[in-house]
Amino acid sequence: MVATLFIDGVWKAASDGAVHDVFSPHDQRVVAQVSQASQSDVLDAIDAARTSFDSGAFTSWSFKERSALVAKIADLIERDSESIAQKESADTGKRIVEAQYDVADVVATFRHFAALGAKEHDRRVDVGLENVTSRIVHEPLGVASLIGPWNYPLLQIAWKVAPALVAGCSFIVKPSELTPQSAIALMGLIEEAGTPKGVANLILGPGSVVGNSLISDPRIDLVSFTGGLTTGRTIMHAAAQTIKKLALELGGKNPHIIFADANLDAAIDNSVTAAFLHSGQVCSAGTRLIVEKSIHGQVVDEIVRRAGQIKLGGPDDLLAESGPLISQAHLEGVTSYVNKAIAEGANLLIGGTRSTDPAHANGWYFLPTVLDDCLGSMHCVQEESFGPVMTVEVFETEAQAISIGNDTNFGLSGGVWSGDSAKAERVAKALRHGTIWVNDFGPYRPQAEWGGYKQSGIGRELGEHGLGEYLEIKHIWTNNVPSRSGWFSDPGHGGA
Ligand code: NDP
Question: Is the overall model pTM greater than 0.85, yes or no?
Fold first, then answer.
């Protein structure tokens, strides 16, 4: 029996016995079989989370106690990091070394929130009255649905689970149906660490089947979601009925600006990484290159040369530098995206098709692709491909670079390369994106907030705000010397 749903502290099979195969994007092998929740399983999980929250069994723990729990989970993840990385690599097709980095980032995320939770959160407010004590206190927000994507499955879930636990929320985790194994492993460690039953629940299955209750049930107070814009809109719509709190991370179309006075060797090398790491399946991928006209030929020629050298391969290929796309549907989507770009007038310099290497015949491998002569009006410049596709635009002035960099409905991240630090700072401030890298592209730390302007989302993960998403703020005003308000006249009153 496959029993991989975790509901009210118990591992369960789906109530209707349904199971779901997980396929390797590298060769379509079945790498796992997991339970596929029914609607009644979802309702049971919501019920368990709501009951546990309302019982106070976890909310009565102090911040310090919950932080200690989260620190313990970090240690357990570290203990099991190799087997978790193996699962992540099998589900996503990414190289084992990348999965190992991801699991290390997961540990760092849990440790960040454990340290943050151990700090003092509440504060006194000076209201200018000697007889009054005024306090701002922070309380767990309630029951949360935590819905994650397939590109960094455990890491994106960790950005939600760790702060939810520190805050004292109860929750239901739903990973992508394509990549469930690492979430199952995490849930086992949350259980092992001694989390009260019903606080953490795991539902598996496609969003189209199990998602609706998770985003609309009145017993859910918060939906924290990372994924596509279309699903984000569906969630906002459903959440409106009961005014749920929302935390949304919806991806980006991230500008990467290179001025002629930059360290070009570093800028070009980072451009290749920014666009082609994990085959572009990164919400902050720097897939929109915006390069000063005078160096356009030099930069693009070198990027094309480097793109042509990238070695694609599966989880166990020690020489591989990047892996497959997640699914056949995604490969087809990236292919039609590129074809549409060419039809719109983009100039295909390299790539543009799936790999024809016989070693990739059963996998979803797409070649690193560079599209030149792109304009802001084109679909390929405005829409995410979420594949290894770089578009190239040119600018002549600083103002033009800023204008092009902001010409998008997204606002997740961006980069600027220049040897003139004052200019780089001006551009960094003018770009309307949640993270800007200057003379760099890609690094992040859990101590710094992460999130998007505009249609890249709502709210922030990580940093201090990442915990704030899971807290309610309450003002408690205590009059230590009770007296009459005296607002309305009271002629008959003779004194107390
Ligand atoms: P989705 O938005 O479809 O999926 C993200 C998560 O939401 C998955 O767990 C999915 O479940 C779930 N989901 C889907 N529909 C619903 C629903 N109606 N209610 C509740 N949950 C739902 O993203 P995709 O995986 O299809 O990727 C599409 C695009 O999203 C990508 O091309 C990319 O642009 C963007 N994306 C952005 C990411 C980011 O980091 N910001 C990460 C991944 C994708 P399931 O997959 O099991 O159906």
Answer: yes
